[in-house]
Amino acid sequence: MSSPVIDAHTHLHPPRLFAAIRRWFAERSSWDISVHPTEPPAVADCLRRAGVDRFIFFSYAHRTGIARELNAWLVETSRSLDRFGIPLGTVHLDDPAYLEDARLALEAGCAGFKIHEDVQRLALDDERFIPVFEMVEAHGGAVVAHVGPIPWDYLPGAGLERVRRVLTRHPRLSLIVAHLGVPDTSAYFALMDAFPNLYLDTTMLLAASSPIRPPVDLLPIGTFATRVLYGTDFPNIPYAYESERSGLTKLGFGPEVEAAVLGGNAARIFARFL
Taking the chain, what is the end-to-end CA distance rounded to the nearest angstrom? Predict the structure, then answer.
């Protein structure tokens, strides 16, 4: 039996939010992402046709007052897709009831949370996240973190130190840092020896035509094959969906490493939700 393919980094948003995100890219970037769909059934269909067995998806509360509604939409969308897509919830620390929002999201079926430091203007090591991360640990889920304003300007080292502080406080927390942690990729790989629940995802770093380029040689992916997850950012990518997977194959690590990255690692981390 072949290993599963699990895209561990995709986006689904309610229609008005997705439309606003698409306008932002059209007005403020050179990326043409309009060829890809935004409606959940159409996104799911694209992933199925690309050979994906399951996918992890998320949205984010970019302001206060919307997290609870967003989480309800994410959970209902997952149900409408027969759990082909597994949702990660969102919280905003400036909401008075953010802990209740987090609890309700996990109880309703979210497998953890997505934190986007740049969009949400929230630091991963903010102490208010401590009880949220404790909930995720108890829930057996994971946190996916977009650390810093990748792919735009970013201060090297600063995000890495925030991740180090979080994992020092929460060594049992499964923390997946997006985009191979660029520009600190080498330092993240080095940190893995100290923190066994630190993971990276490949999102937008392996596709040959990606506007984000890896700052270092990607050979450590082979060394840390059990700690890297396949992710794409679909449908917000300015190239064909298959490009990320093709980029992994071209690195030549072989079937065992590819199987772990493409789905084996995500299947282990999210086992109770698949």
Answer: 17
**Residue 252 Ramachandran class (φ > 0 left, ψ -120 to 50 alpha, else beta):** left
Side by side, the strands of the sheet bearing 6-11 are: 6-11, 54-58, 85-88
DSSP codes, 75-136 = HHHHHHTTTSEEEEB---TTSTTHHHHHHHHHHHT--EEEEEHHHHT--TT-GGGHHHHHHH
For the chain, the domains span: 6-273
Which residues, in sequence order, are CB contacts of 272 under 8 Å at separation 6+? 140
Cα–Cα nearest to 232, from 1, 12, 2: 12
Kindly indicate the confidence band of residue 215, based on its pLDDT and cuts at 50, 70 and 90: confident
Is the confidence at residue 90, as pLDDT, over 90? yes
Question: What single-letter DSSP state applies at residue 64?
Answer: T
User: Minimal CA–CA distance to 59: which of 31, 81, 84, 87?
Assistant: 87
Mean pLDDT rounded to a whole number for the chain: 94
Q: What are the tokens at 55? A: 């996918």
The one-letter amino acid at 107: E
- The tens digit of pLDDT for each residue in 192-211 reads 999 999 999 999 999 999 99
Q: Which residues, in sequence order, are CB contacts of 4 under 8 Å at separation 6+?
A: 53, 54, 262, 263, 264, 267
CATH of domain 6-273: 3.20.20.140
